[in-house]
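User: I'm putting together notes for a lab meeting next week and I want to include a structural view of one of the chains we've been expressing. I don't have a solved structure, so I'd like a prediction I can at least talk through. The sequence is below, exactly as it appears in our construct file.
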Amino acid sequence: MGFFKKIIEGLKKTQQNIGFKLKQLFKVGVFDDDFFDDLESVLLSSDIGASASMDIVDELRDRLEEEKVSDPDGAMGILKEILVEKLSADKFEVTSPAVVMVVGVNGVGKTTTIGKLANQFKKQGKSVVIAAADTFRAAASEQLEVWAERANVRIVKHQEGSDPAAVVFDAISSAKSKKTDVVLIDTAGRLHNKVNLMEELKKINRVISREYPEAQRKNLIVLDATTGQNALAQVEIFNEAVNIDSIALTKLDGTAKGGVVIAIKEKFGIPIDFVGVGEGIDDLMPFDAESFVEGIL
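Assistant: Thanks for the context. Below is the predicted structure for the 297-residue chain, given as structure tokens.
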């Protein structure tokens, strides 16, 4: 199944929630104050968020007036353009050597995302080593090992409860000696408290900066689309600790509120680079703004 078909399939619930309502709203073809109030309500119902919803409505109102558009298809076309513009970003690319640190709370699909990313990099002809630095969650490294085998990549792991930064140190040493293109780092999603977790991530960050200054750096957060607005709070917390510059959104096929991607991009300016639309190893898709907007509408 191609990207577009997978996205359409994955966004079915969101499309049923927001796309149908928008079609009904635009079909009337009367773009008055009531229309714009109703449009804002529909956008809010998909978790786009208040600020982004108001911006979209204001921009649509201005453009309809400026371009003297009064037909439903023309107006819907302008709405699509506005949404695509809000979501567009440079393509996620890594150049060798690269270190991708993957963060996020437990349960969002972090381990599976790392496995799928490793598989993508391998398909691009890159060599990969995974650092199993979530040493606090029971069986975390075993789960990661299964994914490493599926993607046919190396993994560096220590005993449960050992120092995560030491795992990262060893993975970087291994990558350097074997001239590996990409180091993918799994990290803990929960410790005894939030402060401990964030300090642990900062420590890993320092090890990478000290041991591998020449490597390209990416800090990617994995978010569960079904948590809606709670995903915004997660980005905020992790961003303070390690400067997030990329987002992978999982379980998009399980939510009717896929509009949260617009809220995230609007608030933080961080691109959504990947979306998860299933459980298979190939079901992590590079995010494409146009396909996503088509999938919603």
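A couple of points you could mention at the meeting. Strands lie at 98-103, 128-132, 154-156, 182-186, 216-224, 246-250, 272-276, 284-286. The longest helix spans residues 194-211.

User: Perfect, that's what I needed.
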